[in-house]
Specification:
The complex is a heterodimer of chains A (258) and B (273). Chain A has 258 residues and is an alpha/beta fold. Chain A has ten helices and ten strands. In chain A, the strands form two sheets. In chain A, strands 6-7-8-3-9-10 form a six-stranded mixed beta sheet, with helices on both faces. A four-stranded antiparallel beta sheet of chain A has the order 2-1-4-5, covered by helices on one side. In chain A, strand 4 and strand 5 form a beta hairpin. In chain A, helix 6 packs parallel to helix 7. The longest helix of chain A has 18 residues. Helices cover 86% and strands 0% of the residues of chain B. Chain B contains nine helices and no strands. In chain B, helix 4 crosses helix 7. Classes of the chains: A alpha/beta (258), B mainly alpha (273).
Amino acid sequence: MARKIDNPIFELKGISKSFDRRNYILKDFNLDIERGKSTVIIGPSGCGKTVTLKIMTTLMRPNSGEVLFNGERIDNLSESKLIDIRKRTGFLFQSGALFDSQSVAYNVAFPLYMHTNKSETEIMKIVKEKLELVGLADTMDRYPSQLSGGQQKRIALARAISLEPEVVFYDEPTTGLDPLRTDAISKLIARMQEHLNITSIVVTHDMKSAYTIADRIIMLDKGDIIADGDSSLIKESHNPVVQSFVTGDIGNADDYII
Amino acid sequence: MIVDRIGYLISDFLIDLGSFSRFSAKVFFALFYHKRQGRFKHTWQRLNRQMFDIGIKSLPVVMITGAFIAMTLAVQSYSQLHNLGLADRMGGLINGSVVNELGPVLTAFMLAGRVGGALTAELGTMKVTEQIDAISAMGSDPVCYLVLPRLIACVLLTPLLTIYADLMGVIGGSLISIYHYGINSEAYWRFSADIVERWDVCLGISKGLFFGSAIALISCYNGFNCGQGARGVGKACTEAFVRSFVAILAINFVIALVSRAIYSSFWTLKSVI
């Protein structure tokens, strides 16, 4: 049910993934990601959203199938050959995954230290710019544990965009945040998209956030795409599973949730 | 049923051993062929920090261990040697044991507990909170960034810490023997010099290189492969501790066999050479 896209930035072709070789999380899965747009992948917990994201970033390798980035196959590359590709992508982890023993400034500067030959002054200037972009320029000398969950997500976002990547992956960016912070992060992601003209791939189960961010929404269920379109198409979908998910109303289908 | 269980245990052990060997090979490959990541200043800062944590902070506990074990050995051996009229020879016994076995092995045990546990817990927590994945996602090699500084610090500092443990053992043993039991000081040191050769000192210290590598590799491997949650980190720490202990004892045994063979083949010819 996945749409075919012209000149996609990412292509997943016939991907299968299982952790025990018996139960497949994804089986013969195909997906194209549009260049320069925000694609949001939604679906219930355990449907394979995060696995799809991690396969795209090659943090997880598929059992079979191909992952293509800008038309080049990347799932079979060694870790050292993936460095150049990973420099062109940013990843916002569900937990933020900030280095808790390092300052905010070091966290945001980490990719710059690793992949550029810029001076300390230049790096700190970039760090400040990125932190200003996420509205936390005054936290440079603080440590992640001294920040709230929402602030940590914003710092992680600043780190993900510090090398000005072509693509940013967001794994449940609003999980665990209160409604106001959820809205703030969603708007921030949408703003990043406009400002930096990047391709965003977001995994979430928060529908309000998905509507704010998405140019295109894909719904997964049990490893299959059951809906693919813009926000209005998802809202008007006649598929009962899609409807119950987007409205948050389980109706009589409680066995589906449980 | 029992055969099944034994079969599973053996296959789990072999899978784990294979996985550990791959990890070790990756670490050694990274040590010699890695593309330097990050500026030198930060590489040195990371190594410096590890050396401080592993070396300087372990120094008191290692020195105390060396002193107490030699003093206890002096107390235990005096009663037996005194009855045989061989108390003067205690120096050789105490210093030989300390320099050859007790100093290096107990230093390694202390480091496995103090440093190994901390390494596993730190890396395990980083694994559970996706910080290790984040390093990969940012195009860096977690082995280069996290394991190499810890391995280098352990390998370089375990022999140095062994020297301190030996030193305190020699001092502690001599204080108890000479000042507490009144053994003739000249005889004590002469018999020590007769028994403890340069070979023993070098062998004891060089054991630290192997013990240090084993502690760092096992601890980092367990941290990188720890299970989910606080329970996973705790389990990884316990396993790292036990495995390091067993590895230290096994390596010590192998070194004893190999060194004895080398010693009997070459060292006895030193007067001829």
